[in-house]
């Protein structure tokens, strides 16, 4: 009877932990996808990466017990998956899928222009700079969580983020980004 109870308890705990991971995946899917795009450089590869990472996260034997820790853990699983795939090669901005404004007079709202400008500015950054901005500024991780995901000290996160923000500002204000100009070769 005691052996059955332990088995029953462990099955319940395993299901509970899987539910925690599934819930976190649902809540974080769009941010995970944004981070995957920043890692991979294109949407198609990002889709493959996020699906592969979700399968790995769901198949793990030791996910975090706390929902708060699960979010950072998912980003770390995806980053490690990306590293394992050998996608660390630098992706040139010219090879990346361009972000274009929508057609029509209503399309040029300030928020859209700002979003396009920032995305194009991010495309001009080095991959490690894009990654830190995606984690802290776009995905909303605290410095300690980003440090855990990247497996670096908190001070390194802070210095990388500072330099990345300056590089983004330089890309945007330095005239390297033209949000309303279409890329060559499209349409």
Automatic annotation (TrEMBL):
Which keywords accompany this UniProt record? DNA-binding, Sigma factor, Transcription, Transcription regulation
The family database entries (Pfam families) matched by this protein are listed as: Sigma70_r2, Sigma70_r4_2
DNA-binding found in the keyword field: yes
Query: A Gene Ontology molecular-function term?
Result: DNA binding
Where's the RNA polymerase sigma-70 region domain? 31-89
UniProt feature coiled coil, ranges: none
Q: What SUPFAM superfamilies is this protein classified in?
A: Sigma2 domain of RNA polymerase sigma factors, Sigma3 and sigma4 domains of RNA polymerase sigma factors
Keyword Cell membrane on this protein? no
> Which PANTHER family does the protein's record reference?
RNA POLYMERASE ECF-TYPE SIGMA FACTO, RNA POLYMERASE SIGMA FACTOR HI_1459-RELATED
Protein name as it appears in the record: RNA polymerase sigma-70 factor (ECF subfamily)
Q: Which organism is it from?
A: Methylopila jiangsuensis
According to the entry, what is the taxonomic lineage of the organism? Bacteria, Pseudomonadati, Pseudomonadota, Alphaproteobacteria, Hyphomicrobiales
């Amino acid at each position: 009877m005691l052996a059955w109870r332990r088995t029953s308890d462990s099955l319940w705990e395993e299901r509970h932990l899987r539910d925690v991971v599934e819930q976190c995946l649902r809540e974080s899917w769009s941010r995970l996808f944004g981070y995957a795009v920043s890692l991979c450089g294109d949407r198609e590869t990002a889709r493959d990466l996020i699906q592969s990472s979700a399968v790995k996260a769901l198949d793990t034997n030791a996910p975090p017990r706390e929902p708060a820790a699960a979010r950072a853990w998912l980003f770390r699983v995806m980053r490690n998956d990306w590293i394992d795939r050998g996608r660390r090669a630098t992706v040139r901005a010219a090879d990346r899928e361009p972000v274009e404004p929508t057609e029509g007079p209503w399309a040029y709202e300030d928020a859209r222009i700002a979003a396009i400008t920032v995305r194009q500015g991010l495309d001009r950054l080095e991959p490690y700079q894009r990654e830190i901005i995606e984690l802290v500024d776009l995905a909303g991780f605290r410095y300690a969580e980003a440090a855990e995901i990247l497996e670096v000290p908190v001070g390194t996160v802070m210095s990388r983020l500072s330099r990345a923000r300056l590089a983004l500002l330089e890309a945007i204000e330095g005239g390297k980004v033209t949000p309303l100009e279409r890329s060559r070769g499209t349409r």
